[in-house]
Each structure stands twice: as structure tokens, then as C-alpha cells.
Amino acid sequence: MSELQQSADKPSLGQRAGRFGIHILTASGAALAFLALLAAVDGAWPAMFLWLGIALIVDAIDGPLARRFQIASTLPRWSGDTLDLVVDFVTYVFVPAFAIANSGLLPKLLAPVAGVAIVVTGAIYFADRQMKMPGNYFRGFPAIWNTAAFYLLLLRPSPVWSTVAVAALTIATFLPFPFIHPLRVVRLRPLTIALLVLWGVLALITLARGMAPGPWITGALCAIAIYVVGLGALRR
Fold it and tell me: Which of 13, 15, 159, 220 is 20 to 30 Å from the Cα of 200, by its Cα?
């Protein structure tokens, strides 16, 4: 390849700066997690979930952007995969673990134990090189503790049942059952995406109503959760 061709293929300083902005976008998820944590300290659960929801949107768009602009090859100094895992851990695991432990849902003596169990099992899961199964299914409960915290604070079961739920999910992290990736699993993907959009709308209504949306919305949110778990269980 000629020097002229190499020069043409090499991104300019402005292009590299623009592409580095995608790393900044990914890292902004950590800032959103920090804001969510501040809300959780005050027990402002709707605000916490709103910040975590924005972080979820960032997580959905930064990967396609990084692949579109070939960030891994043009900015090899920074690992987008590592950055993504760091941000995902604080948004999916650490902040929700604090919320669950600090929400009053669990017995006072068991709350710190549950929080520790969540962050330890979540960290191990994120390091698992076999967390994905064929067909873009996750292996076991994929440490989406933000969602678990949402349902616990929505349903507010008794401390005993809250403890059972947390214990069951920490154990399920290491069980070899399939759990769908809602965007990448091909089977029933149009239906899954439609239900995901509906879930987002219902979740926003729930936040607007202070985590007390009424029986119909609560029932619909639970039905969508059952669909997601069931679709993984019915994997062929």
C-alpha cells in the first residue's frame, strides 16, 4: 500500500477526536450511575430509575456507534469493551445493589449481606467468558439487578419474600438456563421489541406515579417479565 493510500485511510485529528467522543458517551454512563446513586441515598426511587433508564439508552446506542466508526482499530489505546463492562457493572449491579439494601425491603441484618452477595456474584458474572449461549442467549440470570430492583420496589413483597427473591436470583446467576437478549435473540424478536417498548412506556408511567401505578399497569409489567423469562425457558 502506498504512503498516499495509508494517509487517506488514516483518520484526521478531528475525526479521531470525534470518535473519542463515543468513548466519552460510554463513560457518561458512569456519571449517570453516580446521579442515580445520589437519588438512591435519598430514597428517591423514581429519580434513581430515571437516571438508570437514561444509562440504559446510552448502553444501547454506544456499541453500534463504536462498530460503525471502527473505534477499536482507530483508537486502539482505549478498550471500549473494558469501558463498557465497568459502566455496566455500576449501572446494572452496584447502584441497584445499594438500592435494594437501603430500601427497607429486606430485614435490617440481612440487607448488607444481600448487597454484598449481589455485587460479588455480579462481578463474577461479568468476568465469565461463557456468559453467552448459542443464539445470543445469556447463561443464567444476567445480573440485571436494575430490573430486579425495579420489580422489588414496584411489588414491595414482605421482607421474607424479598430475601428469597434476592437469594434466588444470586443463585440463578450461575445456573445454565437461557435468558434472552431482547434485541439479539431472533426468535419472536418483533414481538419482544414491541413488548420492550410497551414496557418502557409503562415504566415511565410507573415512575411518574411514584412507583405506585395501580393494578393494571403493575399486572402488565409482570406479564411482560413472565414473557421474557418464559421465552428463554422455551429455547430450543
Answer: 159
